[in-house]
Amino acid sequence: MSRDEEFTAYVRERRAHLFRAAYLLCGDEHRAEDIVQLTLSKVYAAWRKVQKADSVDAYVRRVLVNSHLDEGRRPWRRERSGEIADRPAPVGLGAEELDELWTALRSLPAGQRRVVVLRHYWGLSVEETAADLGVSSGTVKSQTSEALANLRRTLRPGNADSDAARGGRR
Fold first, then answer.
1. Cβ-count burial 50-67 (b if 16+ within 10 Å, e if not)
2. CB atoms inside a 10 Å sphere around CB 25
3. Residue 34, pLDDT score
4. Are 24 and 121 in contact (CB under 8 A)?
5. Whole-prediction pTM value?
């Protein structure tokens, strides 16, 4: 297969997963598209090098996280929209629970959100997450612990903040 065919096959297989990960990192459908496109353009330019890596997915994941960080540094990206984009619901969650989950994830500081996405969406180990983010394993552990504690607090039944997010319904 040619370089273009190999790259196209990879994109066809992994693009949806990359988009979901980018969306979880940034919380905005349009930014996630931009991040995926930036990632794929970088990966295409280095495709021969990427194929020689121990893990193509790990290489692409690192490019995706770095692209997210780069996009976040752009001055025009600092403004946040308050809109919630339409997105498919995970199986087993109702609309209220899904909205509450997205609100809770968006409320996490960026570092905690990145760790949660890499550890619990991508299923990476502490060491793999640390390598992808360029931080120590201890930082990954503490960020994970703090993120999960924040999510538990936010999503706890009877929590005033989560009740307010649902319009006082329970």
1. beeeeeeeebbbbbbbbb
2. 26
3. 92
4. yes
5. 0.61
